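Ticket opened by: R.M.
Priority: normal
Category: complex prediction / small molecule

The reporter submitted a protein together with guanosine-5'-monophosphate and asked that the result be attached to this ticket for the collaborator who will pick it up next week. Submitted input follows.
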Amino acid sequence: MKKDDCIFCKIANGEIPSRTLYEDEAFRVILDLGPATRGHALLIPKDHAEDLFGLPDDAAALVLPVVKRVAVRMKDRLGCDGLNLVQNNGEAAGQTVKHFHVHIIPRYLGDGQEINWTPTSPSAEELDGVMGQILE
Ligand code: 5GP
Ligand code: ZN
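Result attached by the on-call engineer:
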């Protein structure tokens, strides 16, 4: 299902042109217009889902094989030294477009980009606590 006012629905379904690297029945992979690095791409499902929480399991199961296919090609053709997958869900996580997407970001030694967090030092009790909370 498409959402009328969603730009990624329009891009994924070809109503808005994009630089497409891959397309099948379920997905389109396009170049990001504000790339972190050379070749930064976005995998976008053709059916609207706001985020990972709303993505149906059958679509989710198809995501990684497509991502891998594009990643392998990037390594081969662009000669990248590494690659990050980034997938933001919700404002707190930095999601700006409310249609599920996966960033495929080729990395080059010395590219100057950072996809990072600051590690913290929780106590054993805190780690046990959060594990218990997730598992309960
Ligand atoms: P988010 O912050 O939601 O994880 O990432 C949204 C991404 O979509 C950003 O990297 C941004 O550059 C990209 N983006 C936003 N609008 C467009 C667009 O119209 N076309 C393309 N190709 N990329 C877009
Ligand atoms: Zn959408």
